[in-house]
Design brief:
The protein is built from four helices and nine strands; from the N terminus they run E-E-E-E-H-H-E-E-E-E-E-H-H. The longest helix has 15 residues. By secondary structure, the chain is α+β, with helices and mostly antiparallel strands. The chain has a domain of about 100 residues. It is globular.
């Protein structure tokens, strides 16, 4: 994941009438801690394996992304990236998404009661990225620093020892378990 922010530039160079060119360099800065970016990327790869894009499938290389559906299905989108290329697809009715939400519509001969981000936007993203990345060597994402972002093995409540539970009048069967909302 890119962790650098560069101020958008409308002009990168100017050539005067004598042919002298002046170039302007982007002003960039690190915007996100590299380790945080790697961990966030790792999480977002799950959209293809266990998330909303799992029924669409990945692009046969490391990829990550996020689906989205606006309130009331006004728009639907998918934004995704590989280490080499990022793109996004947004879908909405050109007549105006508020008056014409993506509910009860027929698109490409298929009826949709509601259009979600993976339905059409995700499929367009996948087809586009497969084509755009043809012939580009597969690059891996940076691995996650598991010593820093190793999951939550230590955040589950500790089971009280027998005498602590008895002292509080709690039966061990009442001990909260991970996943019980604690």
């Amino acid at each position: 994941m890119i962790d650098t922010y560069c101020v958008p530039m409308a002009v990168t160079s100017i050539t005067d009438r004598e042919g002298k060119t002046t170039t302007y360099e982007p002003k960039c800065r690190q915007a996100v801690d590299e380790g945080v970016a790697d961990a966030a990327t790792d999480i977002m790869t799950g959209v293809f394996t266990r998330g909303t894009m799992s029924h669409v499938g990945g692009i046969e290389r490391p990829a990550a992304g996020k689906t989205g559906t606006a309130d009331n299905s006004y728009t639907a989108w998918f934004a995704g990236f590989t280490p080499d290329l990022a793109s996004a697809v947004s879908l909405g009715d050109p007549r105006g998404p508020i008056d014409h939400p993506l509910r009860g519509v027929t698109i490409g001969g298929r009826d949709y009661s509601i259009v979600f981000g993976a339905d059409i936007s995700g499929r367009i993203w996948k087809a586009t990225m497969l084509d755009a990345l043809k012939g580009i060597k597969k690059t891996p994402f940076h691995p996650v620093d598991s010593s820093r972002f190793g999951g939550c093995n230590s955040c589950a409540p500790k089971k009280p020892e027998r005498d602590e539970a008895d002292a509080e009048g709690m039966d061990l069967g009442d001990t909260p378990r991970q996943g019980d909302g604690f």
